[in-house]
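Budget justification aside, the reviewers requested a transparent look at the raw inputs and outputs of the sequence design task funded under Objective 1. We therefore reproduce one unedited record. The lines immediately below are the structure tokens for a 344-residue chain.
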């Protein structure tokens, strides 16, 4: 058991894999256990899940710096991005990063039969190339290696050219302060750095962007009056972004309703300094230059994955490289455990 930012986290030494799965703080796990017990005992009601859904919505809005009225909920990042991709016009040109995570790219690629063009460029080239495209869709922090887009450069280039921007912050929100009300769409899955159960995701939409999107998965939960939206043929959906809501995975939002407001209450500059600082100690211990991301990708360590597993160092392998990631609950001991294997 370790103590982190006023919470407890029950993980062994060597957990460096938040980029795959985030670990819930004690309060999040306890909320989940209580909800599970109530369900198992037949004591739950539909209405009791509304407050955690609302709390997570507000937490997400606070984490990325947007009005809560602009945020909708879904089950995954790709499903939410799919709403945006379905709304781009025939023949639209979309720019993505080379080796971008496919939850960002595939929702656009499947529209090639109607003339949608999807091109990829190296991440660093996206701001310069953006003016030739209708949309740029990119993860702020790349899943493969932790590389980060130049947000200021991308904003300046796209605002000048009128290019729309979709940002995926699944590998960014929760450790880095964000102010993204300028982006047309900002999507995030909660089960990594937001320390929530899988099955909860959010997307913020600028009003002009939302106006051009059809609520393709319209359902009772998107109704302005939930009780009045369960039957009939005349949908009266929310006037704001909630009209795009998917019916929530209740238990997932129970956890998210605790995790996101807690993360939003923290000094995220301090969280970033902690997580990136530990990642840079890993880099320094391996003779690598410092970076600005808590995710690092290591080449030239053939066979190290098995040895790391045997030593109890949780990690991932992406593109044939070892991927390690540090979050707010990571410690010097975690870094030392990894370095003991990788420098031997």
């Amino acid at each position: 058991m370790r103590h982190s930012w006023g919470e407890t986290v029950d993980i062994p030494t060597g957990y460096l894999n938040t980029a795959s799965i985030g670990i819930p703080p004690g309060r999040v796990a306890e909320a989940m256990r209580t909800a599970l017990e109530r369900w198992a005992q037949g004591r739950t009601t539909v209405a009791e899940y509304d407050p955690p859904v609302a709390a997570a919505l507000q937490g997400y809005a606070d984490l990325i710096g947007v009005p809560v009225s602009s945020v909708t909920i879904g089950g995954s990042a790709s499903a939410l991005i799919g709403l945006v991709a379905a709304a781009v016009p025939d023949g639209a040109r979309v720019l993505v990063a080379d080796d971008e995570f496919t939850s960002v790219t595939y929702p656009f690629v499947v529209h090639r039969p109607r003339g949608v063009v999807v091109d990829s460029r190296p991440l660093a080239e996206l701001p310069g190339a953006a003016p030739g495209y209708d949309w740029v869709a990119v993860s702020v922090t790349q899943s493969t290696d932790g590389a980060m887009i130049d947000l200021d450069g991308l904003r300046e280039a796209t605002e000048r050219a009128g290019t729309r921007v979709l940002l995926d912050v699944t590998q960014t929100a929760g450790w880095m302060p964000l102010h993204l009300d300028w982006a047309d769409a900002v999507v995030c899955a909660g089960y990594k750095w937001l320390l929530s159960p899988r099955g909860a995701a959010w997307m913020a939409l600028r009003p002009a962007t939302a106006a051009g999107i059809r609520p393709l998965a319209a359902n009772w939960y998107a109704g302005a009056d939930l009780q009045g939206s369960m039957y009939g043929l005349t949908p009266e959906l929310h006037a704001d972004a909630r009209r795009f809501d998917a019916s929530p995975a209740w238990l997932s939002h129970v956890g998210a309703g605790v995790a996101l407001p807690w993360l939003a209450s923290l000094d995220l500059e301090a969280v970033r300094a902690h997580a990136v600082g530990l990642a840079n100690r890993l880099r320094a211990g391996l003779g690598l230059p410092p970076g600005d991301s808590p995710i690092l990708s290591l080449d030239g360590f053939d066979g190290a994955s098995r040895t790391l597993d045997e030593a109890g160092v949780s990690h991932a392998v992406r593109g044939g490289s070892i991927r390690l990631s540090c979050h707010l609950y990571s410690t010097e001991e975690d870094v030392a455990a990894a370095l003991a294997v990788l420098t031997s």
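The two ends are 28 Å apart (CA to CA). The chain has two domains: 2-25+267-342, 46-265. Computational costs for records of this kind are itemized in the attached budget.
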